[in-house]
Amino acid sequence: MIKIKTITGNRKWLVNQQIKLVAFFYFTYRMLAGEIKPKYFIRFLMRLLFFLSKMNHNKYVMIGNRLKINLYVPGYPSRAFFNACRKVNEFEDKMPCVTALVSITSACRFNCEHCYQKHDKGKDIEIGYVLDTVKKMQDKGVAFFNIEGGEPFLAFDRLKAVCETIDMRSEILINSTGDGMTYDKLIELRKNKNLIGIMFSLHTSEPDKLNHFMGRNYAWDKLINGINMCHQTGIAVMFNTCLLTHDFSNGRFEKIMDLSKQFNGAILQLIKPKPAGGWLESGVDRFDTSDIARVKEKVETYNLTKQKKDYPFISCMLNEEDKSLFGCTAGGTDRFYINAKGDVQPCEFLNLSFGNLKSEDFEVIYSRMRERFFVPGDCLLCEKYSRKIFNLFREHKLRSLPLSCELSELVYNDWDRGEPADFYKKVEEI
Q: Comparing C-alpha atoms, which of 126, 135, 100 is closest to residue 342?
């Protein structure tokens, strides 16, 4: 079992000083080697310090010999970590995107009620397009790849090929339900030294409820078997959970945290329910001001207090999306999504397409998307425009999502993205 150790309090302060010192010498060398323009060097370092200051709300976690300060920031001191730092070294153009979510197959034997791929019908794109695109994404600065399905282990040859294509400039995290996972497959994946872990869905601590939620009576068993195999092969275990407002007052959140600790989880991603996929038509519970305050208080307790030191680090979407931090990072502001059919989407929760890899070169599609997301905004587009997307889906009697490029344009041509979130607004001023 890989060693997991959380870091808080004074030790976290000391770790921050170490990161600052190592980064200073690392990038000083890169400047002397001609990789960084001297006239921007001080501003670059100031931007890095500013970003690190925004991690104060996080609990740090050591996964083996790599330190995670944020779910989507590669582990320090890997090559991928320093590659991600280069995001804020852009002063003459748009800062590059460092995170991408890539679905390598739509194959899945579960039927989760909230699945954002619920309407993504169609054949998986030929793997060659994906491998070629992954290389181009790395060249553009993507330093963190979140690989998923469907269930990626049901298309293991595709999963293996993608992971082997991603070199050490980027870190890899795989999303899985445990279905199709075997000991031998994990041993094979572990050869990729940039694999940080496997993330499982844990939406309840009760086996029967999880089986019901995921639509199969073996969902819990697959989860437990997958976790155990990861521990046996020395691969870190992480979790994601999507909870409704009442789950933060009925004890479900606390039970999930207890279970994730019991399972030796390193990180738990707390996903905010989104009106997409399975919930596109019905919508979801809205988190009002008091709900958001309650969630943030609980997350702070688990991330920063001594009493909860040994629990996994919570990566909270409500925190990350807040206007005071990063806001909406879709469309390549800091992340984007490629579905199993090859559609390039701003986000997995935003059922729009800017083009398909089979029809156009990735560079063309990506450039088109970045034009619409050139300035980051604080408006959560997946929430504000979900009804418009659903109406177009219904009016045109569509059988699948995302919307075509033509219909997508009807949504984004006149949308309001709001104002830049605080981080992007301030970092541009440095």
A: 126
Q: Point out which residues pair with 198 in neighbouring strands.
A: 174, 237
CB 25 within 8 A of CB 78: no
DSSP letter at 7 equals E
Tell me the two tokens of residue 409: 């344009």
- pLDDT band at residue 113, thresholds of 50, 70 and 90? confident
pTM of the full structure: 0.96
The β-bridge relationship of strands 171-176 and 237-242 is unpaired
Q: Which residues contact 304 (CB under 8 A, 6 or more apart)?
A: 8, 57, 59
Cα end-to-end distance, the chain, whole Å: 43
pLDDT at 114: 83
Q: What is the per-residue pLDDT for 89?
A: 95
Q: Helix (H, G, I), strand (E, B), or coil: what is residue 340?
A: coil
Q: What is the pLDDT of residue 197?
A: 98
- Evaluate whether 62 touches 29 at the Cβ level (below 8 Å): no
Bridge-partner residues for 66, per DSSP? 63
**Would you state the structure tokens that stand for residue 379, as one six-digit string?**
């408006």
Is the Cβ–Cβ distance between 312 and 260 less than 8 Å?
yes
Q: How confident is the model at residue 25, as a pLDDT?
A: 97
